Automatic annotation (TrEMBL):
Organism phylogeny: Bacteria, Bacillati, Actinomycetota, Actinomycetes, Micrococcales
Keywords: Membrane, Transmembrane, Transmembrane helix
Protein's name according to its UniProt entry: Exporter of polyketide antibiotics
Transmembrane segments: 17-37, 77-100, 121-149, 155-176, 188-204, 236-256, 295-316, 343-364, 392-412, 432-452, 459-483, 503-524
Highest taxon, organism lineage: Bacteria
Length: 532
């Protein structure tokens, strides 16, 4: 296969920071959770109190099947294993699509194939680099667990599972790149497959023991790492499932590549309308048309998560009456709330508030993608000013993230409202969501500022978001200094309904966000466009 080594080196060179950020972020969470086992659990495991929590269907749907919570290793597998396998799957899909369909769409693959390069060399390079990234992740997970004192055999099983499960998604991404005709469609198809696998796992794990539905968990690749049972009588044969499926998917991707034309996908692109709809006659309508798929996907995901988490709140009294330490931990996550329901709502809103910032930045940075591809230049060649184009993306990012986060807050309190027959819980969680919106707007303002003045430094905003997500997810549980945990755009905002409403930080953060947006738009108006 001519040119394979060169293409592998090129793919590593162009995507090294992409994979490094994902791998290091995931690899840091696993040993941190294991090291904080005593802080998180204390004496709960020996009393069987954690088993009571793990038997809750919603908790099983969230975290997967627990099999031994009396030691740090298996507890870590239950607490973060399935979640991290899913996140690693996202990394695998996005990484493979970047090197295959995205490069083909932008013309890079055609340039490479004009040289002495085998027909399947670009796809092979993408698969090799994706599998290498999965292997590095598995190695770091296994080594880090040994470093914190966990058994070597269980750590090897954990590391292999953490590598082989995302390897399956490497194959999914490779197949999606052959079936679809655009990078965006390939990402959507791959992530839809991953989402379906996660949903199947959640439904199966939440069902009754011994039921037919419970057995469906074996059909979900994201469940296979947990089914290996690291640290608890490892079932090594389960690792053959992801290995075999990876081989089949990669082989299918090569077979499909040989049956399609360059630049096309097996799914034919439907012809568009002869004339544009009235909505597409404005910049705002075009931006909405480009982004509506992402917004719908985010809404469905957040709605399902909100209703699932909201249904868990009604069982707190029964579930935690024997777990005073866990109750204390939940109150700490909920800013010291008097009621467990309020503490739970505050904790959930704090996590999803960061995701609202992720959504806002993602919607805004679509402008950078359109610039890079030359589409923005075509629009600006008409009578459309730069500020109008940028403002259209900015408004959709700000309004879209705000509306979706507000909907999450309302849906989070809906199950409790239906149970009590009172609008109080739903309105309270809605207010709690709205008061955290300025944090997402501040992150969005930083993204606008960087894009307007220093577009090459746009990655900084993802560092801020990643740090905030880490702090809200495990920062307070790990017992880190309070000043360090509070170094996020959201921590200065009041945590309703636990704390009293304080308009000073809300208005200050909002003002700072608007100032950053204005400065960013000014810079975007003055600088040169990025060439495609």
């Amino acid at each position: 296969m001519n040119g394979l080594a060169t293409l592998v080196r090129l793919a590593l060179r162009r995507n090294r920071w992409f994979y490094a950020a994902w791998i290091l972020g995931m690899a840091a969470v696993v040993p941190a959770t294991a090291a904080a086992y005593e802080t998180i659990v204390g004496g709960l495991a020996t009393t069987g109190a954690l088993d009571l929590l793990a038997e809750n269907p919603t908790m099983r749907a969230m975290l997967g099947p627990p099999y031994d919570l009396t030691s740090p290793g298996p507890f870590t597998v239950w607490r973060v294993g399935t979640f991290m396998a899913t996140v690693a799957g996202i990394m695998a899909i996005l990484g493979v699509v970047r090197v295959t369909r995205a490069d083909e769409e932008e013309g890079r693959t055609e340039l490479l194939r004009s040289g002495v390069v085998g027909r399947h060399a670009p796809l092979t390079a993408a698969v090799v680099v994706g599998l290498l990234a999965c292997a590095v992740l598995g190695l770091l997970v296994g080594v880090s667990m040994v470093a914190v004192g966990e058994p070597v055999v269980g750590s090897v099983a954990y590391g292999l599972g953490s590598a082989l499960v995302p390897a399956v998604l490497v194959g999914v991404g490779a197949v999606a790149a052959q079936v679809t005709s655009s990078a965006r469609a390939a990402r959507g198809l791959g992530l839809a497959v991953l989402g379906a696998a996660y949903l199947l796992r959640a439904v199966a794990d939440a069902s009754e023991e011994g039921s037919v539905v419970r057995g469906l968990a074996w059909l979900s690749p994201v469940e296979w790492m947990a089914l290996v049972h690291p640290y608890d009588g490892e079932r090594w044969w389960v690792l053959l499932l992801p290995a075999a499926l990876t081989v089949l998917l990669v082989a299918a991707a090569f077979a499909l590549e040989g049956r399609r034309d360059h630049g096309a996908g097996l799914w034919a692109v439907r012809p568009g309308r002869d004339r544009a709809t009235p909505a597409l006659l404005s910049v705002g309508g075009l931006v909405w048309r480009l982004q509506r798929g992402s917004l719908v996907g985010w809404f469905v995901g957040l709605a399902v998560f909100a209703l699932g988490m909201g249904s868990l709140s009604g069982s707190f009294d029964t579930m935690l009456e024997r777990i005073p330490r866990l109750e204390m931990m939940l109150r700490r996550l909920g800013q010291g709330a008097d009621t467990l329901v309020d503490a739970f709502f505050v904790a959930m809103l704090g996590i999803v508030a960061v995701l609202a910032g992720v959504l806002a930045v993602q919607l805004w940075q679509r402008l950078a993608v359109e610039e890079h591809r030359g589409h923005a230049e075509l629009i600006l060649a008409t009578a459309v000013p730069r500020t109008r184009l940028a403002t259209a993306y900015l408004l959709l990012a700000a309004v879209g993230s705000t509306v979706l986060f507000a909907a999450f807050g309302a849906l989070l309190g809906l199950p409790e409202t239906l149970a009590q027959g009172d609008l109080g819980p739903m309105l309270g969680s809605l207010r709690g969501a709205l008061v955290l919106v300025p944090g997402a707007l501040l992150v969005l303002g930083l993204a606008v500022l960087l894009h307007g003045w220093a577009p090459r430094l746009s990655w900084i905003v993802w560092v801020v978001v990643g740090w905030s997500l880490f702090m809200v997810w495990v920062g307070s549980i790990l017992g880190l200094p309070d000043w360090l945990v509070r170094l996020t755009p959201w921590e200065v905002l009041p945590a309703l309904p636990v704390e009293e409403m304080d308009w000073t930080p809300v208005l200050a953060i909002t003002g700072a966000a608007l100032a950053l947006m204005a400065m960013g738009l000014w810079g975007y108006r003055r600088r040169d466009l990025r060439l495609p």
